[in-house]
Queue: 4 jobs
Job 1
Amino acid sequence: MTIRTLSHLPVTAVCVLLHACGGGGSSNTAASTPAPSAGSAPAQASAPAAASTPAAASAPLAASSPSAASNVVVQSSTPNVQPIQVTRTATGTRNMLQTSVTLCIPGTNTCQTIDNIQVDTGSQGLRVLASALAPSIALPLVAGSAGSAGSSVVAECAVFGSGYTWGAVRQADVRLAGQLASATSVQLIADSAVPAAATDCSQSGLPMLTASNLRGNGILGVGPFTADCGGGCAVSAMPRWYYNCTAGACSASTLAVAQQVTNPIARFATDNNGVLIELPAVPPEGASAVAGTMTFGIGSQANNGLGSATVLKSNSITGYVSTNFGGSDYGSSFIDSGSNGLFFPSTTLTSCGVWYCPATTQTLSATLSSPTGATAGVSFSVGKSTTLLSSGNYAFSNLAGPASGFFDWGLPFFYGRRVFTALEGRPTPAGDGPYYAF
C-alpha cells in the first residue's frame, strides 16, 4: 500500500469495491519529498481494547550477530513460512493479499489471532482495527513525551492514497510463523484511548477506521525499511504523523525511531533481513482464489535463497527503483503487494474509470533498473477490466489502471514469481538492503 511520505513513508493501498487498491513504501528519513499514491478511487463508506498503562517502546533489534562482511547471513532453523492467500473478501475487493497475525500482550501468552490482514510490501508496520481485538488483549500504550502537560499517549495519523487511519500506538508481541517480534510498536486503528483524529489528519481523505473502509482488519507492512516514518519524525513534529494526546486534544510531536510503528521483521531474532513472497501463476481470466507463502529471511535458510533472482538495489532514501516504459523513465517505481493492480501512465490504453479496459488483452514490456545499473526486463499483460471484474474471480495478473508520473508494480506482478524485499541495512547474500529481487 502507499502512504504519502517523507521520502520512504508508506505508500499504503486503499482498496475500493471493484476498484483500485494502492500500496506503497515507508519513510525513514528527515527528507520530506511526498511519495506517489496509487491510482485508487475513494472507497465508499459503508470494542476498542481498553487503555492500559503506557509503556516505553524498545529499539528494533539489530540484524542477528552481523558480520563485518555485508553478505554473511546468520543461519536459522526457526519456522519461517507464513500462509498467505487471495480470495473472496467481505467487500468484494479483488487482488487482496491477506494473512493472519497473532498479537499478544508483551511477555505473555495472552494472545489473539486476527484474520484478514493485508500483506503490504509497500509500507512498514502492523496496523490493526481496535474493533478486531478482544477487550482481554489490553496492549500497553506508548507514552507521550515527558514535557507534555499531564499524562499523554502517542497517536498516529497514517495517510494513504485514498484516506487515513488514526489510532493509538501500542506495544505488542507479534507472532508470524514461528517468529516473534517482541514489544513491537503497532497502530491500533480507531482506538478509544485517544481523542478523535487531529484536524489536519481528518482532512486527509476518507477515514479508514472500519473494516468496510479499510477492506480488512488491518495492514501488515513488510516493506524495505524498519520504521514507518524514521528520522524525519524523530527530529521534527511533522503534520499528519505522530501526536502527543491528552484526554482533550492531540498535538503533532516528535517520536524516536525506536518507538515508531515498526516493521515486525526488523524485530525477529533471526530471518530478519527481508521477506520472500511466492504466489502461483493465474490464467488470463483470473482465478477464484490462490494460496501462497510469505517466507521470512533472505539466505538464512534453505527455503529463502536468492537463487537466480535479479537483484535491483533500491534508493536508500525513497526505496524506489526506475521503470522504463513506452519510451519514458519513471524514477518513482516500486514493487508493492498492497496495490491490487498495476498502476502506470499510458497514452494508448483505454480507461474505464480507475481501470484500463482495452478491447483485447494487451501484452506490454518494461525494464526495471536500479541506481547501481542492474536491469531486469518484464513482460506483462493488461486485460479488459470490465470483463475481469464481472467474473466471479478474485485473483488477476492482468488488472491495471492509470497513474501519473510513477509506476506501481502491484500484486499482479507477484503471480508466478518469487519476489524478495530486502530490509535496509541488513546483510544478505547480495549485500545490504534495501533492494527488490525476482
Job 2
Amino acid sequence: MKAPVLIACVAWALNGFAQPNLTPGSAQTERILVLGGTAHLGTGEVLENAAIGFADGYIDYVGAARDVDPKRYGRVVDAAGKHVYPGFIAPNSTLGLMEVAAVRASRDYAEVGTFKPNVRSVIAYNASSDITPTVRTNGVLMGQITPRGGVIGGSSSVVQFDAWNWEDAVVRADDGIHLYWPSTHHKHFEDGRAQLRKRKTYDQKLHEIRDFFTRARAYAEGTPTKRDLRMEAMRGLFVNGNRKTSGAATLFVHADDAKQIAEVIRFKRAEDLERVVLVGGVDSWMLADPLRENDIAVMLQRTHSVPRFAEDDIDLPYKLPKLLEDEGVEYCLQGEGRMPEMNTRNLPFFAGTAVAHGLEYEQAVRALTLSTARILGIDDACGSLEPGKDATLFISAGDALDMMGNDVEFAWIQGRDVVLDNKQIQLYQKYKAKYDAQRATDDRR
C-alpha cells in the first residue's frame, strides 16, 4: 500500500514543478516606452505610430513616436506593426470564485440567504486561480468580481489579475450592491408548446424588495442604536442621509425582459437612487429612451448568445451593442452565461462579433475599456491610455478583437510585467514538440 501512495506523491510533486511560473510581477523599477504600433486609446481615438511611456506604474506619455526621446526611458519595447490597447475589463464576473462547478464547497460566488448585501465577494476571490492566466493571455487584465444568488447577492469589487491575494488584487473594494430582479413571467409547457404566464409570486417579491429598501433608507438616515450589518452595507446607495451615506455606491440590477427593465426604471425614480446599472439587458434596446433619460447604463449580455424568442431577429444578440450605441445609451460588454469563468477569455471576441454587426471598431474597444471603467467608477485611474492613469495595457501582434489576430506578446498591470504563460500553452508546446520530433524522424526515413 505504501509504494503506490509514495509514487502518487512523487508524481504530484513533479507535476507541480511542471506548472508555469506565475509569480505576480514586481513593482516597476525602470521607465518603459512602447514605441511604434497602433495605439487604441480606449476613448474612441486611435494613434498611428504611437508612443506610450510609463514610470512607477503610471502612464506619463501618450503621443506620436516622433515627438518622444527614447533616451529618457530605460527600456524600449518595439511595437512597430502591432497594436496597443488598455487592459480589457471583465465586469459581472465570477472568475476566482469557482474552480470546480461540481463541488458545492468550491462555488464561492453564492452565499446562503435571500437579502444579503453584507456579503463581500472579494474576500472569497482566489488570486491563484488556474483560470486567470488563460484570461490574461487574451488581454483581459481586470474584472469586477460579482456575487450571485438570492434577491440581493452582496457586494462586488474590482480587482486586477496579477496579485498574491485578494487584498493585493483590489482596485476598488465594494463598488456596488447586486440586486437580482424577480422574473415577471415563466414558461409553461402545454401540448408541446411553451406559453408565457405571469409568475404568481412576482408582486410579493417586489413588495419584499421595496420594504427592504425602505428599512435600509430609514436606517441610513437615522441614528440606529443597534448595528445591523445588512443595513450598514446598504448605506452607500442613498443620496441623502448622515454619517457614511454618500450615494457613491452603485446598485447593479440584473434584469433582462422589457417588463423587468421598466420596473427597474420606476424603482430608481421611486427610491431616488443616484447610480443604477442594468446588468443583462436583453430587451434594453426597447427602452433605450427611458434608460438614457434616467441615466441608467447597461452591462450587456454576451453577444455570443441565441435570441430569447422565436420572433426575435436571429442576429439580435450580435447587434445589441450597435442598437444601444445609436440610441446614446451608455453600455459595456460582459460575459455572464454558461461557463462564465472560462469564457472570460472570450470577452474580446464578443466585441469583435459586435464589430461584424455594425459597431465601429473603436467603439467596441471602448466597450471593453473606458465605458466599463466609467460604469464601475474607476475611470479616473483605468480604462484608457492617458497620462496619469495606471499603466495597465498590452501589445498584441494582431487585432485583439479577432480570434485569429489576438496574440498578446507583452502585458503590464500597474506597470508590472505580466507573465503570459498558462497550463494550456504549456500543454500545446509539450505536444507540439512531441509531434514535431516525430515528424522530423519520419522525414529522415
Job 3
Amino acid sequence: MASIHKDILINAAPEAVWDAVRDVGKIHERLCPGFVVDTKLVDDGAARMVTFGNGMVVKEVIVDSDDARRRLVWTAQSERLTHHNGVMQVEDAGEGRTRAAWTADVLPHAAAQTVGPMMEMGLAAMKTRLEEQ
C-alpha cells in the first residue's frame, strides 16, 4: 500500500479553510474549482459523487468530519483503486495562515503515481480559491 502525504500553506484563516473543506457537497465551488467540476451528495449525504476536471468520476464515502480537530476522512471507490482512504487536516499556521495536509493511502501501490500528482493539483487549486476570498 502506498501512503502519500502532501501539504500546502494557504494565506487564509484556518476557520475559513475548514469551512470550505467541511462543506462536502460544494467542493467544486468553494474548495477547488477546476480541479473538481461537480459534486453531488448521495446516500442521504453519507457520500458524494465527485467529478474531476480530467473527467474521472469517483464515489467518496464520508467517514468522519471532526470540527474540533478540523479533520475530514473519506474513502473512495473507483475502477482504478481497490483501496483509497483520504484525510484532509486543517491546521493553524499562525499569522492568519493555514497548513492544509492531505494524506491518501491507496492500493494498488502503483496508483500513487497518478494519485500523488492529482493531490498536488488539488492543493494548488485550493490555495488559489481560498486566497481569493
Job 4
Amino acid sequence: MRPIIIGIGGAYSSVGKTTIASILLNHLKGWGAIKYTPSDLYCSILDDREILRQEGKDTAILLSSGAEEVLWVQSPPLELKEIISMAIDRLSHLRGIIVEGNSAIEFLKPDIVIFISGRDIETLKESAINILNMADIILFQHEPSIKLPERAKKFKVAYLSISELDECINYIYELLNERQGSRRG
C-alpha cells in the first residue's frame, strides 16, 4: 500500500517549501522526503548521502530535519510519472513521505496538499494555480490579493516561527488521522 503523502508546493521558487517540510519532518518520525527538480535532459533518483548532504542543498536540510530517507528526483516533465512512482516505491516502507515540488504534486495527488503563498501571488504560473486549487492548507505571510479556494484551511504565519505554526501542525495531525482512518475503513 502507498504510504501517506504530504505534498508541499508553492507560488514560486524560494517561497519556503523546504522550510515548511523541515519543520514537519521534525514532528513526523519515520517519514521520508522526495525533492523534485525539473531537468531538461535526464532522469535520476539520487540517494547518495554524500551528495544529498552537500551544504546549501535542500536535501541536506531535509536530512538534518529528521527525514529517515531522502531522494532527489530529477527528470523532464514527460518522464515524471514513471520516475516519481519508482521513488515512491523505494520509500514505501516508511510511515509517510513529504514530496516537494508542484509538478510532482500534480501527478501524485497526495493525501494532504500544502500551498505556500508568497508576496507576488497575482502572477502565478499554471502549475502553482493547480496546486493552490488542490490545497488542504494554505500558508501565507501577507493576505493574498486573489481569491483562495474555500475548501482549504488558511494559516497566516511568519515563517521560521514554530509557535505560529503550532495550530497548522495540529491541523496536519488531524488530517493525517482522518486520512489514515479513511484508508483503513
